[in-house]
């Protein structure tokens, strides 16, 4: 698929117009997306209007650097006046009242935003099956999942419904679906891209990143969305380089290969593809491989699921039906309470002695309508996986368990970070497969959450350490499903990821 | 109030004081904190708890808190961390309050309180930063509770004392001292009735001589200084009575009912919330550079103790006057402003402490709302100093100035209170008085010199108070001596 810059060239030459480009994608969505189900909403009229407006700027020679890009947005990045549902019943009709910083920045550079993309509810999942809109299917094999949680974003790019998408990555949610759908997915350094307007799942892990068909486009989009934002205290005041200028930079990259990432549970074909690719790169003189040790990697999934769910349990507390979002019927709440009261009162009449006292206590202890309303709204509004993680997170923060879980996980997180610091004092990059397998069948892991969680085994460490990482297509399995390779680099060294990515791309083209 | 004299017991009291800070904007959102706006007009998407919003730390919240920390001798943490306190309530839009938990910004300080029997040091355990919740309004709508989120996110500091207080009186003095400090620092207006200063108390009792603490209860909803004192006394009495009658104090949270003058249970220990505190991931740790702390230190205003000392040494006031004048920062400011126009500290102190304070008490107003500005007051004192008016005239003019904004000299003229010091005015009166009282003149001449007072009184009366008593005395003495010699 074409790079954005070649579309831009055609636009400037007058070979095509942006409304034509938009129409091409809108047509493809109309024809193909009923099967894939990548988009949750597309406002065709608005897209065409905006396309015409940007076209005018192109004609007048004053268009921004992203004129020619057509970008889909994961449904948890706020766009003013648009439903931002996070694929959840609790926000099904919630309209955001402001633009996320990344949206402002994309618009300022004349990106054309084409629609809202499907995902796992509140970014919790690895298959885009936990969604009120139905699963997003893998365009390369529609019996299989697109990965998750940014499955809609990966599928939309793979299916050529747009030339790029924004996803979010908390434990691998950009890279794993990118790997499953055969596209490029970048998780930037924590603090590189503003989270203002990104609906929070786990605040100390979450990050927005581009998903594209090629490395150059990822570099181009990152340049626009990255940088300090006064509305996000966790963004860094680190200069944003012109990432595209690093793409063709020569010089051998020193790549650390951690044996821990090539161990048990890794699909043989995935392993072979990664290893063959690395061998070829080394033979061409692009890289030099050295072994590195990541002794705490084996704890990363446990650590991630303790800390991320803890933060999630707090971040999702605001969905209580009081100010916006789904609210249960208060009449029903009152009816339920009355019914229960009557039942208990009836039992009290028949009971005596100790049991009577006990029942009276139960009656007195019945939740107030307010508490009931909270419970009912949230019970109705959240899906199973979200509930599971809220419960898990609440548990690990509870008095008496905090030290054993949350505090300990924080310590392990530091150790994992130190593993990376040590490694990056010697190597430019660390390499691994992106995910242990290729895309699995729909429904395959639905009843086994732990197996589902293991999808994040190679990706979660980068989120724990706050470093940047990229997933690139690394060939295919015999059945044609794409496999992925992941490069990780130290904080704010996205330039190294793009350089390595470019080399892989050249090798495979 | 029943006071139980149980010499066997002593109370142990610790206070948690919340002070609403006077920053222009909220703790984590760029929107006004001003009190009294129409409901839900001073809000951003963050204040409404909207998805995707992030808190952005207001630097002045840190600055004001460090100011308080330095003024109370606290250590200032190089690195402190915000934490989330999680609980559900309709006026808490995010489902958590941003506060500080394990690592407060200030810790280990102390303040000195003054008691009838001397001074006492009270330890400050910690001072931390947090945000206020919104307001639930239960009495405006027959069915629903209404929520106003203007207050949601207004910055607060919580000042936690050591359990060093032993009596309700000490608690009262401590709270007054805290208010004095925040007012001096200009970080909080200190108004308890409006809720910008709030106080919770932890109270326990133990046999005198015992070093272990008894079981404590927490008292809430004491919204005036008087109520703090009353509620603590009530709770001490209740606990002692309970123990004396063989019962046991249980750990619980109690609400003070200011109408019934008693406490009632708010929640038991079992019902205590598990707030699931954890570090706030959206705000990086607050790392304070030495320069920042130094800058705050250098800009600290003069605190009450040193001001009082200066008033004594530099202005020559006695220590009681100096204390009264410095008790309230704004009164001290007012007093010092008078001295910008008048070089007579004692006369100014007298007027402020007698007349000004009297009016403030009578009208229950703050010095900030006192109608007469310092300059005209200085002018008034100068009239007296220059002997243009006498003391009783000064008081009359002062009272007029409360109602009429006019130069005191002009008022004195209008009220015919200016003293007339020309000899031509007073001489005929003196002659008249002496002529009218030949017997007294005779007795004076025979040596009864104290009769001079009688003559002065007569002259002053005849002059309708406008004569200058000093001049009258001089002239009278001269006249009587002349008569003597003749």
Integer average pLDDT of chain A: 96
β-sheet strand percentage of chain A:
5-15%
Strand % of chain B is 15-25%
What value does the Rg of chain B take, in angstroms? Answer: 31 Å
Largest sheet of chain A: 11 strands, mixed
- Class per helix and strand makeup of chain A: alpha/beta
Low-confidence stretches of chain B: none
End-to-end distance of chain B: 75 Å
Task: Name the assembly state.
Answer: heterodimer
Secondary-structure element string of chain A: HHEHEHEEEHEHEEHEHEHHHHHHEHHEEH
Question: Could you give a short account of the major beta sheet of chain B?
Answer: 9 strands, mixed
What is the number of domains of chain B? 3
Report on this model:
The complex is a heterodimer of chains A (509) and B (486). Chain A has helices at residues 4-13, 18-36, 44-59, 101-108, 151-158, 175-181, 215-225, 268-283, 300-315, 330-350, 353-364, 369-381, 384-397, 403-424, 449-453, 460-465, 494-508, and strands at 39-41, 70-74, 112-117, 137-138, 141-145, 164-168, 184-187, 208-212, 253-258, 287-292, 429-433, 468-476, 482-489. By secondary structure, chain A is an alpha/beta fold. Chain A has one domain (4-307, 416-508): Amidase signature (AS) enzymes (Alpha-Beta Complex). Chain B is α+β, with helices and mostly antiparallel strands and 486 residues long. Chain B is built from 15 helices and 16 strands. Chain B has helices at 59-71, 168-185, 225-244, 290-298, 304-315, 319-327, 329-339, 345-363, 374-385, 391-403, 408-414, 423-436, 438-445, 452-462, 469-485, and strands at 9-20, 75-76, 79-80, 82-86, 96-100, 106-115, 118-131, 135-137, 146-148, 155-161, 197-207, 217-220, 252-257, 262-268, 278-279, 286-287. A 9-stranded mixed β-sheet of chain B has the order 2-6-7-10-1-11-12-13-14. Chain B is elongated. The model of chain B has no long low-confidence stretch (mean pLDDT 92). Chain A binds chain B through residues 76-78, 84, 86, 91, 94, 96-98, 100, 195-200, 202-204, 230-234, 310-311, 313-314, 316-318, 320, 322-324, 370-371, 374, 394, 397-399, 402, 406, and chain B through 45, 48-57, 84, 86, 88, 90, 93-96, 147, 274, 276-278, 281-284.
């Amino acid at each position: 698929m074409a790079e954005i810059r070649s579309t831009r060239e055609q636009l400037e030459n007058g070979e095509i117009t942006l409304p034509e480009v938009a129409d091409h994608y809108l047509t493809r969505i109309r024809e193909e997306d009923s099967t894939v189900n990548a988009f949750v909403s597309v406002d065709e009229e608005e897209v065409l209007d905006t396309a015409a407006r940007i076209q005018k700027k192109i004609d007048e020679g004053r268009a921004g650097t992203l004129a020619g890009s057509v970008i889909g947005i994961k449904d948890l990045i706020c766009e003013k006046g648009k439903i931002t549902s996070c694929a959840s019943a609790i926000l099904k009709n919630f309209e955001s009242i402001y633009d996320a910083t990344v949206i402002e920045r994309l618009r300022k550079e004349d990106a054309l935003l084409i629609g809202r993309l499907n995902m796992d509810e509140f970014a919790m999942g690895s298959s885009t099956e936990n969604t009120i809109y139905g699963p997003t299917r893998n365009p390369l094999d529609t019996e299989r999942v697109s990965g998750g949680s940014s499955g809609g974003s990966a599928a939309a790019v793979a299916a050529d419904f747009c030339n790029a998408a924004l996803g979010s990555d908390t434990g691998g949610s950009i890279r794993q679906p990118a790997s499953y759908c055969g596209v490029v997915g970048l998780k930037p350094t924590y603090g590189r891209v503003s989270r203002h307007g990104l609906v929070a799942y786990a605040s100390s892990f979450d990050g927005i990143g581009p998903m594209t068909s090629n490395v150059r486009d990822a570099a181009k989009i990152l340049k626009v969305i990255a940088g300090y934002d006064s509305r996000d205290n966790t963004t860094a005041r680190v200069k944003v380089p012109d990432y595209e200028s690093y793409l063709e930079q020569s010089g051998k990259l020193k790549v650390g290969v951690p044996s821990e990432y090539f161990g048990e549970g890794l699909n043989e074909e995935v392993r072979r593809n990664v290893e063959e690719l690395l061998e070829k790169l080394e033979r061409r003189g692009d890289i030099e491989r050295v072994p590195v040790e990541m002794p705490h990697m084996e704890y990363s999934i446990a650590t991630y699921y303790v800390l991320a769910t803890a933060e999630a349990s707090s971040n999702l507390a605001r969905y209580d039906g009081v100010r916006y979002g789904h609210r249960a019927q208060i009449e029903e709440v009152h009816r339920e309470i009355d019914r229960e009261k009557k039942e208990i009162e009836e039992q009290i009449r028949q009971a005596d002695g100790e049991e009577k006292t006990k029942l009276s206590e139960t009656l007195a202890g019945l939740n107030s309508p307010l508490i009931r309303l909270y419970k009912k709204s949230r019970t109705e509004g959240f899906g199973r996986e979200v509930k599971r993680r809220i419960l898990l997170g609440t548990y690990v923060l509870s008095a008496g368990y905090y030290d054993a879980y949350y505090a300990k996980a924080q310590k392990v997180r530091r150790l994992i970070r130190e593993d990376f610091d040590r490694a990056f004092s010697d190597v430019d990059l660390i390499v691994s497969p992106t995910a242990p397998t290729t895309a699995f069948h729909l429904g395959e892991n639905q009843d086994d959450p732990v197996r589902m969680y293991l999808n994040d085994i190679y990706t979660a460490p980068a989120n724990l350490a706050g470093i940047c990482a990229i997933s690139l297509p690394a060939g295919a399995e015999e059945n044609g499903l794409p496999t992925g390779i992941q490069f990780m680099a130290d904080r704010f060294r996205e330039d190294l990821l793009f350089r390595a990515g470019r080399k892989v791309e050249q090798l495979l083209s | 109030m029943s006071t139980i004299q149980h010499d066997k017991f002593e109370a142990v009291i610790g206070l948690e004081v919340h002070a609403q800070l006077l920053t222009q904007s909220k703790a984590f959102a760029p929107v006004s904190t001003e009190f009294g706006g129409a409901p839900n007009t001073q809000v951003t998407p963050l204040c409404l708890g909207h998805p995707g919003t992030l808190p952005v730390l207001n630097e002045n919240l840190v600055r004001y808190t460090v100011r308080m920390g330095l003024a109370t001798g606290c250590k200032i943490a190089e690195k402190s961390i915000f934490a989330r306190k999680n609980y559900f309530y309709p006026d808490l839009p995010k489902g958590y309050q941003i506060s500080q938990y394990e690592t407060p910004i200030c810790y280990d300080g102390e303040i000195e309180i003054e008691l009838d029997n001397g001074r006492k040091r009270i330890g400050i355990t910690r001072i931390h930063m947090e945000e206020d919740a919104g307001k639930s309004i239960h009495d405006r709508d027959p069915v629903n509770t209404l929520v106003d989120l203007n207050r949601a996110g207004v910055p607060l500091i919580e000042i936690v004392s050591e359990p060093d207080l032993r009596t309700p009186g000490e608690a009262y003095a401590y709270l007054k001292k805290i208010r004095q400090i925040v007012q001096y620092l200009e970080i909080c207006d200190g108004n308890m009735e409006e809720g910008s200063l709030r106080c919770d108390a932890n109270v326990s009792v133990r046999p005198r001589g015992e070093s272990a603490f008894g079981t404590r209860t927490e008292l809430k909803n004491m919204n005036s200084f008087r109520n703090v004192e009353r509620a603590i006394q009530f709770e001490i009495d209740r606990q002692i009575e309970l123990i004396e009658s063989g019962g046991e104090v249980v750990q619980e949270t109690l609400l003070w009912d200011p109408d019934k003058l008693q406490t009632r249970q708010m929640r038991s220990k079992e019902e205590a919330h598990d707030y699931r505190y954890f570090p706030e991931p959206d705000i990086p740790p607050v790392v304070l550079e030495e320069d920042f702390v130094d800058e705050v230190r250098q800009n600290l205003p003069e605190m009450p103790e040193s001001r009082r000392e200066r008033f004594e040494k530099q202005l020559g006031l006695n220590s009681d006057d100096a204390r009264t004048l410095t008790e309230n920062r704004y009164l001290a400011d007012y007093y010092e402003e008078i001295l910008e126009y008048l070089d007579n500290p004692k006369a100014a102190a007298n007027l402020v402490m007698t007349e000004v304070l009297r009016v403030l008490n009578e009208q229950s107003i703050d010095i900030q709302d006192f109608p007469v500005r310092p300059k005209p007051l200085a002018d008034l004192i100068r009239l007296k100093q220059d002997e243009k008016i006498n003391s009783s005239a000064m008081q009359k003019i002062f009272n007029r100035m409360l109602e009429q904004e006019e130069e005191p000299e002009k008022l004195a003229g209008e009220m015919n209170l200016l003293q007339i010091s020309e000899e031509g005015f007073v001489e005929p009166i003196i002659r008249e008085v002496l002529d009218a009282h030949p017997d007294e003149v005779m007795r004076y001449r025979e040596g009864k010199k104290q009769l001079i007072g009688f003559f002065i009184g007569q002259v002053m009366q005849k002059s309708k108070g406008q004569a200058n008593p000093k001049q009258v005395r001089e002239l009278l003495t001269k006249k009587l001596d002349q008569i003597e010699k003749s």
